Amino acid sequence: MGVEPPFFQKYKAILQSSAEKEKFSTIEVFEEFELPLIDLSGLNLGPFERQKCIEQMDKAAREWGFFQIVNHGIPGGLLDRLKYEQMKVFHLPFDKKAEKKFLNLSAHSYRWGNPLATSLRNLSWSEALHISLKDISRMDECNKLRSTIQEYARKANLLAQKLAEHLAQILGIKPNYFQENCSPSSSSLRMNRYPPCPFSSRMFGIIPHTDTDFLTILSQDQVGGLQFNTDGRWFSVKPNPKALVINIGDLFQALSNGIYKSITHRVAANEEVERYSIAYFYCPTDEVVIQSCSEPALYRNFSFKEYKEQIERDVKATGDKVGLSRFLW
Question: PROSITE patterns in the record, alphabetically (predicted)?
Fold first, then answer.
């Protein structure tokens, strides 16, 4: 019984027609880019070092929407254990992963490809396990996966809250904003696997998108493939084995009144090797209303629930997420 999702069977028509039509339509990336690297140990030193560290995060969030962090407080051993459990889950037979109650999680927690794909360009060559943190307690204890995720989620939540509070400080947002509006169970975690892809020069591991949260904490392996777009140019992120990648999400862009940037990014497919990553999405509870922190506001007020429902409608109607532009005044 095979491990791989049946991409070739489900998307046969797309793969056969696109292979010839897009034969010479390769994906262009301009250059490899090393994201700003911020040493969070500066937060625990004197006032000067602390302020310098916060200003570095602020500058990166404004200019790039992405940065890397080291000395972040999440042990390397924990990240290694989580990846080990992640690999074991994804290497289960596909029929097992596709079961309705896989790991006793909500329906559609395990997902792969893109049911709305019409061409190679909007087909994601990947599989994922997307877990709402409120569901962790009911997970099957599958080879220590649940307990490892619980341990990681606790530390990732504290880290995300700390980063968000420091960024908010620059914007004049009250220090306890995130503590009041985000709970440990309102966030989610997504484990990704990118199988080797025979069409790697013409399609994506994950199609271009922005994240729907306040901010994302990404742990990735050394295969590489993360790319982001700025000023119409695509850059490939150089992997750093010692760092976590942080990126700003849509909600922080709206909250900051456009000062911080939620940047479109994607993952390139790889023809030869599989790639793994784990994303922690720091989110508020559904009823929280996002309001720009300054006037005149670029975006009208909206609840997190309203934002997610609008995305769902847009994806069903157009095959793609429209995002914040729906909420401009």
Answer: FE2OG_OXY
Q: Are 202 and 25 in contact (CB under 8 A)?
A: yes
pLDDT at 24: 44
Gap between the Cα atoms of 107 and 93, Å rounded? 18
Sheet (strand 37-39) strand order = 37-39, 66-70, 244-248, 215-220, 275-282, 188-194, 127-132, 110-112
Rounded distance between C-alpha atoms, residue 312 and residue 320, angstroms: 9
- Dump pLDDT digits (tens) for 80-99: 999 999 999 999 999 999 99
Terminal-residue alpha carbon distance, the chain: 53
The per-residue pLDDT for range 158-216, each reduced to its tens digit, is 999 999 999 999 999 998 999 999 998 999 999 999 999 998 888 899 999 999 999 99
CA 140 – CA 164 distance, rounded (Å): 32
Beta strands 188-194 and 275-282, pairing class = antiparallel
Give the 3-state secondary structure of 159-206: HHHHHHHHHHHHHCCCCCHHHHHCCCCCCEEEEEEECCCCCCCCCEEE
Q: Cα–Cα distance between 160 and 137 in angstroms, integer? A: 21
Bridge partners (DSSP) of residue 302 are: 290
The confidence score (pLDDT) of residue 26 equals 66
| pTM tops 0.70, yes or no | yes
Q: What is the pLDDT of residue 19?
A: 58
Q: What is the per-residue DSSP string for 260-284? A: S----EEEE--SSS-EEEEEEEE--
> Which residue spans within 22-92 are E strands per DSSP?
31-33, 37-39, 66-70
